[in-house]
Specification:
This protein is of the alpha/beta class. The protein has eight helices and eight strands. Helix content is 40%, strand content 22%. Strands 3-2-1-4-5-8-6-7 form an eight-stranded mixed sheet, with helices on both faces. It is globular and about 55 Å long. The structure holds S-adenosylmethionine (SAM). Pfam families: Methyltransf_25 (PF13649). This is Methyltransferase domain-containing protein.
Length: 226
């Protein structure tokens, strides 16, 4: 079995995401920065479309998989995808990207897992709902980490550059009451870090969506540096 089967072809085309990222990346002109790239699923997809992409991930193991995938690209496309180890909550590039993405609904999920770990909470107890008394602490830390990520993104975006975060709310929101808070948080970040923000339909970026009642939706948050 090739690594393509298990890694970056995983969930290929969920909500049409390969086509979605290729289109938006082409419009940006590249290069694209792919945060938490994992096995390079989206980065490799962009390279195949001729777009230069840098994938960043905190896990050396994921990066080994991503680099193997690059080696399987046709020779002339191999220079299009590169990978570096780094923390999406604290990065600084000398260059500026016209597009920064975070795919596969991983934003809040990653930050929540990191917050739980930092606070020394047992993950399984958390999922079982046995750590609810620590909720406030967890959510404060999630939002701190998220802000740090947004600050890093804004540092690395080109003027008028865009960022796309897939699944803006859903992974926080196994807790219903957090939806409104997360929505307000985005508006606050946009005001503080000077970007415009839209919640858009995956398949029609001109269509705004913000459905607080849906848990899993094909939607994205789009920020554009003002
Ligand atoms: C669900 S996978 C990513 C999937 C990938 N974006 C895609 O669309 O296929 C989540 C990834 O986030 C990475 N990750 C977790 N915390 C991170 C952090 N602070 N900075 C960068 N990457 C992180 C993990 O190592 C893992 O590879």
């Amino acid at each position: 079995m090739s690594i393509h089967d298990g890694t970056y072809q995983l969930h290929e085309g969920a909500y049409g995401e390969f086509k979605f990222y290729q289109k938006i990346a082409k419009e940006s002109g590249g290069p694209v920065l792919d945060l938490a790239t994992g096995g390079g699923r989206i980065c490799i997809t962009l390279a195949k479309a001729g777009i230069t992409c840098v994938g960043m991930d905190a896990s050396p193991h994921s990066l080994v998989i991503a680099k193997k995938a690059v080696a399987e690209l046709p020779q002339e496309l191999r220079g299009k995808a590169s990978f570096i180890e780094g923390d999406m909550c604290d990065f600084n590039f000398p260059g500026r990207f016209p597009l920064i993405i975070n795919a596969f609904e991983s934003f809040w999920f990653i930050l929540r897992m990191a917050a739980i770990k930092d606070l020394g909470i047992n993950e399984y107890e958390w999922w079982l709902g046995n750590e609810q008394q620590k909720d406030n602490e967890v959510f404060m830390l999630i939002y701190q980490k998220a802000e740090s990520c947004i600050r890093s993104i804004m540092r690395s975006l080109a003027p008028r550059g865009k960022f796309i975060i897939d699944g803006p709310i859903s992974h926080l929101l196994f807790q219903e009451e957090k939806k409104e808070v997360a929505h307000a948080w985005w508006l606050d970040m946009a005001d503080t870090y000077k970007f415009s923000v839209r919640f858009a339909d995956y398949n029609d970026l001109n269509k705004s969506v913000f459905d607080l009642n849906a848990l899993h939706r094909p939607d994205v948050v789009i920020g554009q540096k003002i």
